Amino acid sequence: MYHKSDCEGFQCEQRMLEANLGQDDAGLGVVERLIGWLRQRSLFVLAYGTGCGAIEMRPLMTSRFDAERFGIIGAATPRQADVLVISGYLAVKTLKRVIRSYEQMQEPKYVIALGSCTINGGMYWDSYNTIKCLDHYIPVDMYINGCMPRPEALIEGFTALQERIRRGEPGGYQRYRDNIDWYKANQRRVFGDNMPPAYTYDWYSEGAT
Amino acid sequence: MHVLLDSLAMIALCYVMGFLFQGFYRQFNARLQRRWGPSIWQNLYDNMKFLLKSETLIHGPMFFFGPMIIAAGAITTLLFVPFLKDSDWLQGVSTHGNLILIIYLLVVGPLGNALAVGSSGNPFGVMGVTRGLTRLMGLEVPFFLGLALVMLQHETTSVHAIMAAQDGIAHWNLITNPIAFAVILLPFIASQNASPFDVVGAPVEVYAGPRVEFGGRLLGVLMTQNMMMTIAKLVLVVDLFLGGASNVLELIAKAFALFLLTTAISAAFPRLKTEQTVDFFWKVPLGLAVLGVVLNVWLI
């Protein structure tokens, strides 16, 4: 793998990481493949600017990095969004709003988490008021690490997510639907009495489509 | 049978032209902002994705009927607009209708919008609809006066007859009746919801306006009807002012030229406020329209 003529150091590691991204899933029919391809070409993003990562979303969307050429464009409301971008740390109070927004999005929906704060709390790891691991509360499809990731890294993450959508891999929303009790138990642990009312998510347990 | 096939062909042509024109619009805007922009098929992808999404919202029956009413209004409107002249095809049911009927059908969309959004109860949606109806008050009078000028000039309400009267570029209404075109152009841009008058869906002001509660399939239906309506209105103006078209290529070329004109105008001007929009429509296009009526009726 580490041939100097071919690639070097982190380039080789990057290539190894990306090696399985190019594989086609053989189990999909023509229609599913077409649907997946259409879906990955059009991602409406709800950028939830919680932390410093919000500042990286602006250059991504505007002329310099121009995410619209990948079909990525900002959505006005959660109802119209496909991708929820959590950009940075989440205070408990913010988490409640994020969960409410996430549950209002229409399926298929995906979550991209930016920065180390969403993975393990980052520099807020011992804060009394922020959550450490976002994946315990809402299902994260793609982590983009860094503090903060540059717009190039965001584009990389978005294209990796598009690749997964194209291959028709089960998204995080299916995990949320299947393990709704586990997610709700985790959320109840941080919210306590401030839990969002049950009618906001009861259609998950009924298996509504 | 012929009518059915013909209607389906019209709807399909309208849809294809709709997403390609809007794709072009997005790319044109992107190039003006010095970026690459999406591919020209982007609106097809967006629309298909929304039609394939789930829909879990419950706001009562009217919330679901509203988009259907709007879509039905759009499809009916486009079927009453003849796409080609001297042809059996792409006529829809236009021989059974006239310009006055089309004027009535143009209002179905905003009405269905108001019904659907009113039942959702979202304040941003209601705000958007209020803005839309206020703007409608401003744009409709000059728009319909402009259409009336064309009807006066040819002394008929039939779109076919008006098209047939414009043989050759020298007889285009754009040349023979430029005041009517000037009157109709700006309200036409507003009815396409394009830039200087896009108070309804103003993205950062009212969060997508009337569409704020729609996601998933209903939004897909709304996008579809929007694309079709854009083309139906473009073709109507092409029929009335640019002499119609005798084949599909000519139709696309003329509609595209008109679209390019409106896009260029909307790319150059920033958004007006709602009251500025109404003020503007009641002053400039309406003043021109009154002047045009005076010229047409008493002087010529």
TrEMBL record, chain A:
One of its GO terms (cellular component) is respiratory chain complex I. SUPFAM superfamilies: HydA/Nqo6-like. Keywords: 4Fe-4S, Iron, Iron-sulfur, Metal-binding, NAD, Quinone, Translocase, Ubiquinone. Gene3D superfamilies: 3.40.50.12280. Pfam families: Oxidored_q6. GO terms for molecular function: 4 iron, 4 sulfur cluster binding; metal ion binding; NADH dehydrogenase (ubiquinone) activity; quinone binding. Belongs to the complex I 20 kDa subunit family. PANTHER family: NADH DEHYDROGENASE, NADH DEHYDROGENASE [UBIQUINONE] IRON-SULFUR PROTEIN 7, MITOCHONDRIAL. This is NADH-quinone oxidoreductase subunit B. It comes from Allochromatium palmeri.
UniProtKB/TrEMBL annotation, chain B:
The chain crosses the membrane at residues 6-25, 57-81, 101-121, 172-190, 227-245, 251-269, 281-299. Keywords: Membrane, Transmembrane, Transmembrane helix. It is a multi-pass membrane protein. Pfam families: NADHdh (PF00146). GO terms for cellular component: plasma membrane. Its main location: membrane. InterPro entries: ComplexI_Subunit1, NADH_UbQ_OxRdtase_su1/FPO. It is found in: Membrane. This is NADH-quinone oxidoreductase subunit H. It comes from Allochromatium palmeri. The lineage of its organism: Bacteria, Pseudomonadati, Pseudomonadota, Gammaproteobacteria, Chromatiales.
